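Minutes, structural biology subgroup

Action item carried over from last meeting: produce the structure token record for HTH tetR-type domain-containing protein (Leifsonia poae). EB confirmed the sequence was re-checked against the source entry. Recorded below for completeness.
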Amino acid sequence: MADAVEEALPRAVALSWGVAERPQRGPKRELSIERIIETAIEIADTEGLGAVSMSRIATALGFTTMSLYRYVTSKDDVLLLMQDAVCDIPIPPDDEVIDWRAGLRGWAAASIHVLQAHPWFADIPISGMPLMPNNLAILDWGLRVMKDLPLSEPEKMSTALLLSSYARAVGVVERDVTQARAREDTPAQRGEAFTEALSELVTDERFPYLAPLVRSGVYSDAEGEDEQDDFAYGLERILDGIQHYVDAKATGAPVVAYEPRPEPIPHDKAVREAAKARREAEGRLREARKREREAIARVRERERNAAEKAKERDAKAAEKAAKEAEKAAKEAAKG
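Output recorded by EB:
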């Protein structure tokens, strides 16, 4: 039975589950799969995933490259085992009493914490469904949190995929931004001067909804670190959506599980040209509306100026009439 399981699984998966036969250690008992993977993780943590190679690992351990192949069959095995090793994270106990929102909040946060600790994690391509024990332990944790929700098993899996994908996406963005800011040759894309320069390009006419955001400084974080935690904010909105769906199912209210995916826009030259013409027409329309607003403003300004002048003339005429009346009254008194 064990042989059948080993034969059915990829080498790295079989090693991670302990069902693959491991080579006997050498006389000095210095080399092992664990040491190989620990060394590979250290290299990736300090130099990035691109620095990980069989020869690099062997050099760091003080062995020949060929000696590593007694333990792992390829670099792909190493990458999968590295991925599983960093997923060996503390999981709350089964008897922990916590509501599902708090549980999923912690579960999603654990994913982004792995990325923060090991920025290379997301650079390993996803090759299929999770098969490694630590990956499956984390998935099992998430499903345990959802055990009492009125969701079908496929819905629970879709929910787990939604939250893990969101955490992965945000984690990658945060990692890339952090690395870009740390590079000395990268200009700081923030600050008042950068915001002013960007405001010259992002105009109300071309980007009517983005321009106010740029002027406020939020887009380039001109005032320093943004106080809002974008990951936490987005996570709460996702949980709000799950809450709405769960409540509707619990009360028997009609719900739409999902709508079919919209058909993709054909990637065709004629479509691209038509879209370009539409964007240009929209640009001309925005420019025309700008000129219209400016014309209206000028007319209103002229009307205000004319009204003020008429008011001044009326005031002067009234003042003159009052003086003439006063003069006439004095003359009449003398006579």
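Discussion: The chain has a mean pLDDT of 85.
Next step: EB to file the record with the rest of the batch.
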